[in-house]
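Researcher: Next entry in the queue.
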Amino acid sequence: MRKRKLGRTDLRVSELCIDATGFGWTLGADAAFATLDAFRDAGGNFIQFNARAELDTSDPAGTSVAESIVGRWFRARAVPRGDFVLTSCLQLPAPRAGWSYIRIATAIREHCERALQRLQSPYLDLLLLRWTDSLPVDETLVAVESLLRAGQFRHLGCCAFPAWRTMEWNGHAARRQLSRLAAAQIEVPFAHDLGSWRECLDLAREQSLGLVVRPPFQTCGAADPPNAAPVLPIAINDSPYSELLRIARDRGQPPQRVALAWALAAP
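Model: Structure for this entry, 267 residues:
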């Protein structure tokens, strides 16, 4: 599996990434171990978890099981920490009255500390902040800076940010001499129109952002037959999807594989 340099960072990631969030839920521990073994043997080194930060210190459900499984796999296989790139995609809770950058930093720090303990790792390579309408850019920008400098994670990125918000963040960071976004994750570029997708590609090139792409048909489960009809986020007769399905039928391939090939063909 080929490696790609992620934007301006020093990270070299495999061109395919495992979303391990379902480990322990949709995939048992033994199957997860086998999946990670096969991924490593194929040259993969990129693992991501999706999580939601909590306002209290209770252990939130969701990624805790998956992180523990991956941590046990690292220990059982004696995998050197530097061989893998660990990423957490984090959604912050909606800010409450009186919130400050200190409270935001606390929420992120508590999430990272719990994740690192379960992963048995001293740091995350990449933290992706998921966009919400209520995310306060200035306060969050200051909050993550202290955690970056403390070494809890090495690089910062964004997930599902509108292009203008990404530019806003990097503009504020440049003016205040704080950390710019190093990567951006786009969840479903193959959508109603490709204008936003092309805009994100242009943004990534202009800002030297690493681009992490979730291709379409992500809703197909791991246990689905390879040629199972996908659950589409939009109508089947929408032009991009109908074209993708036609290509898949012509080549006798699952639509998921064609979608991955389409995403990987981008610069």
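Model: Residues 183 and 210 are 4 Å apart (CA to CA).
Researcher: Noted, moving on.
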